[in-house]
Amino acid sequence: MILDYIGVKDINGPLIVLDDVQDAFFEEVVGIRLDDGSIRQGRIVQMEGNRAVIQVFEGTRGISLTNTRTRLTGRPMEMPLSPELLGRVFDGSGRPIDGLGNIFPVKRANVNGTPINPVSRIYPKNYINTGVSTIDTLMTLIRGQKLPIFSGSGMKHNELAVQIARQSRISDENGEFAIVFAAMGVKNDVADYFRRSFSESGILQRVVMFQNLANDPIIERILTPRCALTVAEYLAFELGMHILVIMTDMTAYAEALREFSSSKGEIPGRKGYPGYLYSDLASLYERAGMVKGKTGSVTQLPILTMPNDDVTHPVPDLTGYITEGQIVLDRSLDGQGIYPPVAVLPSLSRLMKDGIGKGYTREDHSALSNQLFASYAKVMDVRSLASVIGEEELSPDDKKYLEFGKLFESHFVNQGPSENRSIEQSLDLGWELLATLPRGALDRVDDQMLDQYYEPAKKRLSTDNAKDRASQVLWDHVNKIGEDSEEESGNGGGENE
């Protein structure tokens, strides 16, 4: 028997309250018919005896306290699933907005997903090549991993998200790879930029895109990542594809959750966010992984902006506890025109060690990464010292580290938004950078590997036949450094005489 509940007890923001509701359940979807005959969707978010609190997806404007009719559907919020999803664009609640009609579903699945049994999880191995040297070499993205990008307001994280989506690929020739892209709380021009970039680059046919605009209801924003992850799980675990889920901006999601929590009258936690923010974020991030008996994988790359560039803000802070590392973007590098402005030292990938090396990337990858980290850390120490005593008072070795730091940032970290470097190109470029340092300074690499990679890199730099544009520019810069050093030593010698 179908019952319509006439009238509502109370309206508060995006919520309506019904009394004397029978046989309802938490997260149940309801249909709400207004006086003008239009129908809105909602879901039950709180149960108190026979009282149900319902969040309305399209907002409560125009809802009457007396004539509104509410009907329970007896099912949770579900996403229609089909192989036809690839190449489609949806709004935040999973409705098509690309003008290509509705999806004819093979099945429907609850957007809240099903928890993965920890015993059934496979330890993530093998990598996803993003074409970005800093990520591929120093904080490698592993299949089944959740690796967030910590950015700041006004920085180029949207451009980086598009570049990663456009360039990402897997090493398996027979494996199918696709992107699920979820944009939350973005402006119209940013949404158009995402859609246009995917279309012009020709990758839209392997992208499933969800768009929640800044002027869309906040309730829809809460559903957006859940709909995206439900699609990702279907493509990965039922169709056997490797899926990279890019979600931006998780801070907009958390702020929507805070506003929704406040409208329910819940006691706020740190900075006004609900006390269950950690478990709510975990319910999203933990949907990444690989499962025994399934060939596919779900990898997450959530992007969040840190308010005031504060990494201790609740959203990046809690995200860091749940995820397996982070990629941090630096505002000072961004101000210098370096793209992508990845801050190497605070960034890491905790699963990187088991997905690189022989059989995955190249046998020298781990040693090279450790040495680049160590050398760049030395650069930061030398810069701190130079800020106190001045560059002129530094030792010759310290001056070499300063030049290494400039080369590292301008030729390794910095690359064009459309520049797609293979893992071999990134590793070779890393060795050519290390070749500008004395061999004795490389204490994180054994002699055998130095003979195999360091010496050939030094020889490559000493020839005119540079391997690629980056190497040629690098060698031109090294030559200029050498000439400047000779001039300085000559001037110094004359003064001493």
Helix-strand layout with pairing:
Elements: E1 4-6, E2 10-12, E3 15-18, E4 28-33, E5 39-48, E6 51-56, E7 69-76, E8 78-81, E9 89-91, E10 107-110, E11 121-122, E12 127-129, H1 133-138, E13 141-142, E14 149-151, H2 157-167, E15 169-170, E16 177-186, H3 188-201, E17 207-213, H4 218-237, E18 242-248, H5 250-263, H6 277-285, E19 290-291, E20 297-305, H7 314-322, E21 325-329, H8 331-335, E22 342-349, H9 365-389, H10 396-413, H11 423-434, H12 447-461, H13 469-496
Parallel strand pairs: 9-17, 14-20, 14-21, 16-17, 16-18, 18-20
Antiparallel strand pairs: 1-7, 2-3, 3-6, 4-5, 4-7, 5-6, 8-10, 11-19, 12-13, 12-15, 21-22
Helix pairs in contact: 2-3, 4-5, 6-7, 9-10, 9-11, 10-11, 10-13, 11-12
Notes on the protein architecture:
The chain has helices at residues 133-138, 157-167, 188-201, 218-237, 250-263, 277-285, 314-322, 331-335, 365-389, 396-413, 423-434, 447-461, 469-496, and strands at residues 4-6, 10-12, 15-18, 28-33, 39-48, 51-56, 69-76, 78-81, 89-91, 107-110, 121-122, 127-129, 141-142, 149-151, 169-170, 177-186, 207-213, 242-248, 290-291, 297-305, 325-329, 342-349. The chain is of the alpha/beta class and 497 residues long. The protein has an eight-stranded mixed beta sheet, sandwiched between helices. Strands 1-7-4-5-6-3-2 form a seven-stranded antiparallel beta sheet, with no helix packed on it. Strands 13-12-15 form a three-stranded antiparallel beta sheet, with no helix packed on it. A hairpin with a 2-residue loop joins strand 5 and strand 6. Helix 6 packs across helix 7 (314-322). The longest helix is centred in the C-terminal third of the chain and has 28 residues, at 469-496. The termini are far apart.
